[in-house]
Amino acid sequence: MSLKNIRRDYSRRELNYNDLNPDPFTQFQQWFDETVQSEWSLDPTAMVLATCADNLPTQRVVLLKDASPDGFIFYTNYESQKGRQLQANPNCSMHFAWLPLERQITIVGQAHKLTDAENESYFQSRPRNSQIAAWASKQSESIVGRDALDARYREIEEKFAGQDPLPLPPFWGGFRIVPKEFEFWQGRSARLHDRFRYTRIDDQWKCERLQP
Q1: 200 belongs to an annotated ligand binding site
Q2: Was 192 annotated as part of a binding site?
Q3: Which of 71, 14, 24 is CA-nearest to residue 207?
Q4: Residue ranges per domain, the chain?
Q5: Strand pairing class (56-63; 46-53)
Q6: How far apart are CA 186 and CA 207, in angstroms?
Q7: Over the Cα atoms of the chain, what is R_g?
Q8: What is the DSSP letter of 67?
Q9: Do 119 and 173 touch, CB atoms closer than 8 A?
């Protein structure tokens, strides 16, 4: 089949202004809860994180670890590509694609590093093998092969043998993305999708429909 002939119509649901909560954080939580409870739910916390440095945007999938009116949190190696880019330019966007439900959410905002106490608390909640991996990987740096990475993991495993909990790596932690804009997208038939954008004006949120 030719790529240009691969398509499907979106007709599961609709989204109207009156359906929306005036608070975009509450609206996000409603859609997230529906996604988690859906029979089609798969990796509902996965989001595409877009960053930009030197006028070159990059994207990758990360996992959302907390969502509240204070912002959206994920964790990474601060010395990774995304970690360095966010510290140089905190402007970023997140994108959730819940395609089985024909829904997408895009959030634009600024990233702020978490405190050492916040990082410590989350790091100690991770499985031990994930803690070891955080120490072992110099994220985004080149490596000669998988054997070298596995050897580094075993080296860290031996170094901290019998030590529980593991210490927090000084180069590892989280970012909180504080939104300034949300867009909620619901697929509709004939590509006439429902799109609503929330923008923050002072301490209030303005919601408006966008053309598809």
Answers
A1: no
A2: yes
A3: 24
A4: 10-124+170-210, 127-167
A5: antiparallel
A6: 15
A7: 20
A8: E
A9: yes
Catalytic-labelled residue, pool 12, 128, 154, 191: 191
Helix H or strand E encompassing 202: none
Active site residue 103: no
Alpha-carbon dihedral angle through residues 4, 40, 32, 21, given to the nearest 10 degrees: 70
Render pLDDT for 46-95 as a digit per residue (tens, 0 to 9): 999 999 999 999 999 999 999 999 999 999 999 999 999 999 999 999 99
Which pLDDT tens digit goes with each residue over 6-35? 989 999 899 999 999 999 999 999 999 999
Span 10-124+170-210 CATH architecture: Roll (2.30)
Run of H or E residues at 74: strand 71-77
The reply to whether 11 sits in an annotated binding site is: no
Known binding residue 101? Answer is no
**Cα–Cα distance measured from residue 20 to residue 196, given in angstroms and rounded to the nearest whole number:** 9
Round to whole Å and give the CA distance between 22 and 89: 30
